[in-house]
Amino acid sequence: MYEGLIDFLYKRNVKSEGSTLDNANIHQILVLLENGSLNEVVRGTLSEMNKIKDLFLIVIRSVNMTETRDLVSSLIQFVSNLCYG
Predict the structure, then answer these.
(1) Is this structure's pTM higher than 0.85?
(2) pLDDT tens over the chain, length 85 residues
(3) Counted domains in the chain
């Protein structure tokens, strides 16, 4: 499931110059990934995915930093979880 979310974001945004999803949808996906990454098995699987680095570009392109602090916070927490252990 979580790998599918990463694949969805990647396919949706890989050749895009700008945002293809609204902030609320990206935030919901990141919250799911963040929660899933608390599990050691899920975290290990996701941290090995090559597309994870592209997730940063997808989110950064889609955010207005002053309006989307929750989105940025979820991205940072998710990445932090992947680095744990």
Answers:
(1) no
(2) 888 888 887 777 766 666 667 778 878 888 888 898 899 998 888 888 877 777 767 666 666 666 677 877 888 888 888 887 6
(3) 1
